[in-house]
Design brief:
TIM Barrel, two-stranded antiparallel ribbon, alpha/beta
């Protein structure tokens, strides 16, 4: 193993330690054999929009994504619906039985989001917001940690380590592309990092081809490539009327295209000995300790104590 592993006390994959399984709500587990697909709009706009999304995607995706707090480059752009959006997400989830994923941007937003959403996302711009990471470490909600715009693999793992060292082992890593000199795509999707992370860490790794590509016509092929190289899941933006999306319209798929994309990854998953979550009539029951398989949790206990001692020191 490379020198990176010497810096990682809790997230490192050690001999015999399998990929940890992190639960999103009561019905979805990331890190097992099934590939998990999370889909939905960049931004929650209204209740009607989310009802259409849930109705159309139910049976295809495992969870719904939707932003209610939006980090925007311009201070004049739409910043999200806040708690009203959370209520819409929560209502949709209760009605359709789909767990939800939404972004938190500050410590102050954690309590409300943790109460009404099933997974809390740390966006690319906040990957090294260390006070936010520490606070998320004190929650029991699963955390989706996105790679920073220019972050190295080591920096991403150390960001995950912040969350875990403060008590929360339920971390899922997300490769979403990094900045480059080329402007044809929004970012460069680093699938090599996905393969490397699967060797370096026991944490599940998913891929966001939407933010990597920035163009909807590229997303399906990137999603299929991500599954082929071993990603544990995908998170993809889609919208009932993509061109009318208030945020990231250019990269949003239609709901119909989203359903087709999910169907297209099933044979690829099967070819590498995996399935697509929800594609099996009866989902296997998994015993989970705080979102992680009990065997993995036991292996992490000693390492967590060492890490906490290091934090205090």
């Amino acid at each position: 193993m490379s020198e990176i592993s010497n810096q990682i006390k809790l997230a490192a994959r050690t001999e015999g330690l399998q990929t940890s399984e992190v639960s999103i709500g009561d019905s979805v587990t990331v890190g097992g054999k099934p590939v998990v697909v999370i889909g939905g709009p960049c931004t929650v706009e209204n209740a009607e929009q989310m009802e259409i999304v849930a109705t159309k995607l139910k049976g295809s995706v495992s969870a719904i994504r939707g932003g209610v707090h939006k980090p925007r480059t311009s201070p004049y752009a739409f910043q999200g619906m806040g708690e009203e959006g959370l209520d819409i997400l929560n209502s949709m989830s209760q009605k359709h039985g789909l767990p939800t994923v939404t972004e938190v941007m500050s410590v102050e937003q954690i309590a409300a989001c943790a109460e009404k959403a099933d997974m809390l996302q740390v966006g690319s711009r906040n990957m090294q917001n260390f006070e936010l990471l520490k606070a998320l470490g004190k929650t029991t909600k699963p955390i989706l940690l996105k790679r920073g715009l220019s972050a190295t693999i080591e920096e991403m793992l150390l960001a995950a380590e912040y969350i875990m060292a403060h008590g929360n082992p339920n971390v899922v890593l997300c490769e979403r592309g990094i900045r480059s000199f080329d402007t044809f795509t929004r970012n460069v999707l680093d699938l090599g990092a996905v393969v490397a992370l699967k060797q370096l860490t026991h944490l599940p790794v998913i891929v966001d081809p939407s933010h990597a590509a920035g163009k909807r016509e590229l997303i399906a092929d990137l999603a299929r490539a991500a599954v082929a190289c071993g990603a544990d899941g995908l998170i993809i933006e889609c919208h009932p009327e993509p061109e009318k999306s208030v945020s990231d319209a250019r990269q949003a798929l239609s709901l119909e295209d989203m359903v087709e994309l999910v169907e297209s990854i099933k044979p690829i998953a099967a070819a590498i000995g995996r399935s697509v979550a929800g594609d099996v009539a009866k989902k296997r029951q998994i015993t989970v300790v705080q979102g992680i398989g009990s065997q993995s949790a036991q292996r992490l206990t000693l390492r967590r104590k060492v890490a906490r001692k290091a934090v205090r020191g």
